[in-house]
Amino acid sequence: MKREDTWKIILLGVITVFCFSTLAVALAGLQIYSLSSDEIDYSEVARSTMEKTIYEQGMRGQILDSSGNVLAYDKKIYNICFYRDPTSKREQNGEYSKAIWEVIRLARMEDKSVEFPFWLALDERGEWAFDTGSTDEYVMERRERMFRSNFYVSSVPLGQLYERLCYNYMIDEIDIDFPDNEKLTQEDKLQVLGVWQEMQMNAFNSIPITLVSDVKWKTMMEAETRGGQLPGISVSVKNQRVYPKGTFACHILGYTGLMQSESQLAEYLEKGYQRTDTIGMDGVEYSMEQWLTGNSTRRRGETIVEVDRSGRQIRELSKTEPVDGNTVKLTIDSDLQRVVEKALENIVNRIRNEQEKKVDDPQWLESKKEELQYYESIDRKIRYAQNGAIVVLDMNARVLAMASYPNYDPNLFIIGMDEDQRFRMLEDERNPLYNNAIKAADTPGSVFKMATALAALANDKITVSERISDGGPFTVYDIVNPPRCWISPNRLYVHEDLDLQGAIANSCNYYFYTIAARMGKDGEMLYRYAAKLGLTSKTNIDLPNEKKSVVGSQVSLYDPSKPISGYAQDTWLPVQVRDALKRHLYQCGERWSYNYEDDRLDRCVKALMDMAFSTDQGVEMNIWLREIRRILMEELNMTQEMAYRADIVSEVVRRLNEIKWGGSQTTMTAIGQSISLITPVAMARYVAALGNGGYVYDVQIIDSIISPTGEIIASFDKPVLVNDLSDEIGMYLPVILRGMEGVTSDETGTARKVFDKWDYQDDFGGKTGTAQKSKIDIENNSWFVAIAPIYDPEIAIVVYVPNGYSGAMSGYAVKEILNYYFEQLEAEDVFIMPLPNALAQ
Question: What is the rounded distance in angstroms from the CA atom of residue 486 to the CA atom of residue 673?
Answer without folding.
Answer: 13
